[in-house]
Design brief:
This protein is α+β, with helices and mostly antiparallel strands. The chain is built from three helices and five strands; from the N terminus they run ααβββαββ. This is Putative copper efflux system periplasmic protein CusF.
């Protein structure tokens, strides 16, 4: 073995041993989230958040317990105005019709929203 090859191998071996002894850093929050999304096993259940707002009712499906609302911004959830559907118990929908202006409260679990209070707006 020539001298240059021996030096190169010695340096590579030394660098490898140093790297083995080095402790890794904990992943940053963004990296943890990316790893959870990739593996699906690290994701913790999302925290349920509560929000409230005003809206116009655009659709009601009492059989499925669904209401679609064209709502304004919801500060607690950091949502802009949009139209979306929510689960709602039939008793909350009994006096509501399409076109009504409503005040509502909801719980958001990160994937779906459930209306917890729904009243016609004055």
């Amino acid at each position: 073995m020539n001298k240059l090859t021996a030096i190169t191998l010695s340096l590579a071996l030394g660098a490898g041993l140093v790297a083995c002894g080095k402790q890794g850093e904990a992943p940053k929050t963004e990296e943890k989230a990316a790893m959870a999304d990739d593996t699906g096993t690290m994701a913790a259940p999302a925290e349920t958040k509560h929000g409230k707002g005003t809206a116009t009712v655009t659709a009601i499906d009492t059989a499925k317990g669904q209401v679609t609302l064209d709502h304004g911004a919801i500060a607690e959830l950091e949502w802009p105005p949009m139209t979306m559907g929510f689960a709602a118990k039939p008793e909350l929908l009994k006096d509501i019709k399409v076109g009504d202006k409503v005040a509502f409260e909801l719980n958001w679990d990160g994937k779906a929203g459930t209306i917890t209070k729904l009243d016609k707006a004055p």
